[in-house]
Design brief:
Layout lengths: L1 H18 L1 H12 L6 H19 L3 H16 L1
Helix pairs in contact: 2-3, 2-4, 3-4
Length: about 80
């Protein structure tokens, strides 16, 4: 019984920690988007950032992280 309780607690804590990384990623996008001079690229990055925030709000944290990392990759390219 203790094993099951431990497993459930571990899953809940780890999923909460994972969900907390999304806001850090979109804050990073927000701070670095000002360095982009190409307006069409900036619009694409903003679109990915907003989609990432929406995915986070809907509980799809893996999709959110994927979209936000894609936006960061565009900034760094």
């Amino acid at each position: 019984m203790k094993k099951y309780l431990f497993t459930i607690c571990f899953v809940l804590v780890s999923s909460y920690s994972f969900a907390g990384s999304c806001p850090m990623l979109w804050n990073k996008v927000d701070s670095e988007i000002s360095n982009v001079s190409d307006e069409s690229l900036k619009a694409k990055i903003q679109e990915l950032r907003d989609a990432g925030e929406n995915a986070h709000s809907n509980g799809d944290h893996s999709k959110s992280e994927k979209l936000l990392n894609e936006a960061l990759d565009l900034i760094n390219s």
